[in-house]
Write a structure and sequence with these properties.
Bound molecules: adenosine-5'-diphosphate, magnesium ion
Radius of gyration: 28 Å
Strand content: 5-15%
Order of helices and strands: HHEHEHHEHHEHEHHHHHEHHEEHHEE
Largest sheet: 5 strands, parallel
Distance between the termini: 61 Å
Structural class: alpha/beta
Helix content: 40-55%
CATH class of the largest domain: Alpha Beta
CATH architecture of the largest domain: 3-Layer(aba) Sandwich
CATH topology of the largest domain: Rossmann fold
Number of domains: 3
Number of helices: 17
């Protein structure tokens, strides 16, 4: 049997006991997946007018006519994807010959080639078109043939979700143009494109001819939810997801209020509720309490910090590493932008193909790190030496150490073990040359 004690009698985690207790503990979830983003609920509160508009646009498909192309806009978590999926289900329930739906998430299937291959493969239900290789016009021709043959005289909806990502890519406009004009080259099948975008301004990046193809109807705008609307959404979901009596309205209101502050994002509200439930279950309590929600919010904030740091460009990561090293070795040391410049230059020398930056660029990165909340920086006048920034890390030291230590280049060059020259008591740097101190 697996034991977790050690010979010296020190504390160690007993996994067997933990699992046994967990099994005996209260069961809070009835259907956990009801809180996952992919779950489609039976009802979508507060999306009546959007559902009504889309139902109106797509209704002609019931009689075999082709609906116009249209676009849905709105910030993340406003229910765009859920609403379009909901409509697809409802339409299928009312059609004698249900339309086809090909759903394309452009963050996952992100190149014009792969989009065509994805549509083709989804319709045949097999990986026929390889993920690279054929010329685009050849696949396009094959796709037209397939649509006419396989779908015949039915309608095929092509949903391009997160379409804003596609437009930033090379060939994005062209593929959209092709997809919105498929009907001109089809004999039997008819296609209709639904674009979904998180960015309200994405149309500005489209060619005028694509815009007119895509906006055959007024765009449907999804507004962020307020705290009361989020409460209704969470209340319904929690009835499906949790056992009866496990969560009070006050706790649901707290989740709704916290998520409303973050742009009224229903995905975040649901994530908070799920995490709070998981924390309560791990703590073996019978109910989900406010402190579980508060802990869940802290965990989510931490996850965001981690994601954000990983997504930063390399030079920003190195600037942050420089600040970290300056804070690591002397907690009292006042960190100036000049120090950060020096340490960044030292780090850059270790890594092939990484340039040293100018004071100006370092200053830009310090501004960006400040805006993202990772550090605070106060500008101070230094008399005739000009102005400098005094910088401080604004997040937990251990958290930042854990994240930086997972960055490939930081790991590879063991940057976290490096002690900056200004903090090495036996060395001094003059005009970029390091001297050993004699006294
Ligand atoms: N009105 C609503 N009622 C119930 N659940 C909703 C509603 N709006 C959004 N959701 C849920 O919130 C999550 C995010 O919604 P989603 O449609 O993915 O947002 P978007 O596509 O706008 O980013 C999903 O789990 C979805 O089911
Ligand atoms: Mg979406």
């Amino acid at each position: 049997m697996l034991t977790n004690h050690n010979e010296k009698g020190m504390y160690s985690f007993n996994i067997d006991k933990f699992y046994r207790n967990y099994l005996k503990g209260p069961k809070l979830f009835k259907k956990r997946e009801a809180l996952e983003p992919s779950f489609i609920p039976d009802e979508l509160p507060h999306r009546n007018s959007e559902i009504e508009k889309i139902a109106g646009i797509t209704a002609c498909a019931l009689k075999g006519d082709v609906p116009p192309n249209f676009v849905c806009y709105g910030m993340t978590g406003t229910g765009k994807t859920a609403t379009v999926r909901y409509i697809s289900q409802k339409l299928a329930e009312h059609c004698t010959k249900p339309p086809w739906w090909v759903y394309i998430n452009c963050t996952v299937v992100s190149t014009p080639y792969r989009i065509l291959a994805h549509i083709y493969n989804t319709i045949v239900g097999k990986e026929i078109i390889p993920s690279t290789g054929l010329p685009k016009d050849v696949i396009l021709k094959k796709l037209l043939g397939l649509l006419d043959q396989h779908i015949n005289d039915s309608i095929c909806f092509l949903v391009l979700d997160e379409i804003d990502i596609l437009i930033e890519k090379k060939g994005g406009n062209e593929i959209l143009y092709n997809l919105t004009r498929l009907n001109e080259n089809l004999d039997h099948c008819r296609t209709s494109v639904i674009g979904i975008s998180n960015k309200l301004k994405f149309m500005e990046f489209l060619d005028a001819r694509v815009t007119s193809n895509l906006e055959e109807e007024e765009p449907i705008v999804f507004k962020p939810y307020d705290a009361n609307q989020l409460y209704d959404i969470l209340k319904l979901r929690s009835e499906v997801a949790f056992q009866e009596g496990v969560i009070d309205d006050g706790v649901i209101k707290l989740c709704a209020g916290l998520a409303a502050k973050e742009h009224g994002d229903a995905r975040k509200a649901l994530q908070l509720l799920r995490k709070a439930g998981e924390i309560a279950e791990r703590n073996q309590t019978k109910k989900i309490m406010e402190n579980h929600v508060e802990k869940a919010q802290k965990d989510i904030d931490k996850d965001h910090i981690v994601e954000y740091i990983f997504s930063m460009p390399l030079q920003a990561k190195l600037t942050l590493t420089a600040i970290f090293l300056l804070s690591k070795y002397t907690k009292e040391h006042i960190i100036t932008s000049g120090d950060i410049y020096e340490v960044h230059s030292e780090l850059a020398q270790f890594i092939p193909n990484v340039k040293q930056l100018t004071h100006r660029r370092i200053s830009d990165y310090i501004n960006e790190l400040t805006l993202s909340g990772l550090i605070t920086a106060i500008t101070k006048s230094m008399g005739h030496y000009g102005r400098t920034k005094i910088v401080k890390l604004d997040i937990e030291f251990n958290l930042i150490e854990r994240v930086l230590s997972q960055i490939k280049i930081v790991k590879e060059y063991r940057l976290l073990d490096y002690k900056p020259i200004i903090l090495q008591t036996d060395k001094v740097k003059i005009k970029n040359i390091v001297f050993k101190k004699l006294i």
